[in-house]
Amino acid sequence: MKGFGSDNHSGIHPRLIQAMQEANQGHAPSYGTDTWTELAQKEFDKLFGRKAPVFFVYNGTAANVLSARTLVKPWQSILVTDLSHMNVDECGAPEFFAGCKLVALPSTHGKITLEQIKKALIRRGDQHFSQVKAISLTQPTELGTVYTTEELSEIAKFAHAEGLFLHIDGARIANAIVRLKTDFASHLSDTGVDILSFGGTKNGLMVGEAVVFLNAELAREFVYIRKQSAQLPSKTRFISAPFTSYLATGLWKEIAEHSLAMAQLLFNKVKDIAGVEVTMPVQSNAVFAKIPQKWVKPLREKYFFYVWDEKSFECRWMTSFDTTREDVEGFEKALRELSGD
Predict the structure, then answer these.
(1) Count of domains forming the chain
(2) Entry pTM
(3) Quick check: is 53 in a domain?
(4) Handedness of CA 88, 90, 95, 100 (dihedral sign)
(5) What are the counts of helices (DSSP H) followed by strands (DSSP E) for the chain?
(6) Structural domain of residue 201, as residue ranges?
(7) Are residues 225 and 276 in the same domain?
(8) Domain ends where: 194, 217, 248?
(9) 165 contact partners, CB below 8 Å, separation of at least 6
(10) Mean pLDDT (10-residue bins), the chain, 341 residues
(11) In a domain, 207, yes or no
(12) Are 318 and 3 within 8 A, CB to CB?
């Protein structure tokens, strides 16, 4: 059953399966010393407009956790949002592997502001208090909203002036780039982001994420961090080859444009249905809406989705590269039947 549960629920994009099949010919060196990984590195360098060392890992949690290990010492802390994946959905992995403390700031529509960050920088130099050393922002946020380029630049400039690092959890970063009508270099490299967790799995790949060092100096010891954390893929070519195709052919943009278009279509189809209350700005591939509790079970029997808030019955409806207009219209029809509209 195709639904709106997550862009993780979709299959592998056919062109990315083809890239894996093409890499599946004969033997190749292991541990990232193969031709496909070299080609992927070149594509990332072009994308970000600079030498940006890239390291492939198996999943998004690893990308975030290993970034944390790189940026902070065990007595230091990272500012995150209260809804961030690092804070809510990684089972304490950042604290476990990096030994650091996460400081969760209350978000508005998934975002935190520079003023909040400034107020969180307290007791600096106090040996009794965990010292803030990094900021981690999710782009787009868990609620599907986006930080503007100006917002990222402002936060990065302040962070660096205060001796802090800026990490971006970019599980769906391509969606933000398309939404903002910008490019990766202008939005991330030029603003001063230090490390990016670049998502693959939610964007049509079978497996794999990339840790991208826009601050190349920070990458010097990452080979050891990745290996020690059990995240060095032996057959790296089967992660790097799809990434190469994803970037070189512009597929990243095609998938993002389609996912965003389907989310906007979904929003337009459901926003005026009696009993449906859209709760968040639709800026990525997610629509958040409250519906009556009694609708949840019959609707999920036809189209699976997650209830984001069990108290208010706010739901999250996600689109992906394989969402079709027919899927959206079928979902709309099911909602209208429940509402008696």
Answers:
(1) 2
(2) 0.96
(3) yes
(4) negative
(5) 14, 11
(6) 14-248
(7) no
(8) 248
(9) 71, 72, 133, 134, 135, 159, 194, 195, 215, 218
(10) 93 97 96 97 98 98 98 98 97 96 98 98 96 98 98 98 98 98 98 98 96 98 97 98 98 98 98 97 98 96 96 96 97 96 76
(11) yes
(12) no
